[in-house]
Amino acid sequence: MKYIELSLSVLHWAENKGILKNGDSKTQCLKMASEAGELCDAIAKGDRDETIDAIGDVMVTLIILAQMEGLDELECLESAYNVIAGRTGKMVNGSFVKDEV
């Protein structure tokens, strides 16, 4: 399935579950943070299956959050990419550290 089809399926699911109608952005953001914590735990344990599941869960919560905020998640991704595309920096202890401007 293509990304856009999956995204629309997520939104359809969220609509059917009443999340879009009855939920709110603050609660959805906390759900996303919880899922991100589960992702960190899965990575720390080296559990690939749980890592895959957790990345998917984070993506689902972000798709729903974007919808709640009236945003298109692909536009958000493009905006972030446009910021980082020309960024320079170096790897320090396994993490990219951007150059100060």
Describe this protein's structure.
This protein has 101 residues and is mainly alpha-helical. The chain has five helices and two strands; from the N terminus they run H-H-H-H-H-E-E. The chain has a two-stranded antiparallel sheet. 12% of the residues are buried. It has a single domain, classed as Helix Hairpins (Orthogonal Bundle), CATH 1.10.287. The radius of gyration is 16 Å and the shape is globular.
Features:
two-stranded antiparallel ribbon; mainly alpha; Helix Hairpins; 101 residues
Can you give me a brief rundown of this structure?
With 101 residues, this protein is mainly alpha-helical.
User: Which structural class fits the helix and strand makeup?
Assistant: mainly alpha
N- to C-terminal separation? 41 Å
SSE string, helices as H and strands as E = HHHHHEE
Question: What is the CATH homologous superfamily assignment?
Answer: MazG-like
Write the layout of secondary structure elements.
Layout: H1 3-16, H2 19-22, H3 25-45, H4 48-68, H5 73-84, E1 89-92, E2 95-98
Antiparallel strand pairs: 1-2
Helix pairs in contact: 1-4, 3-4
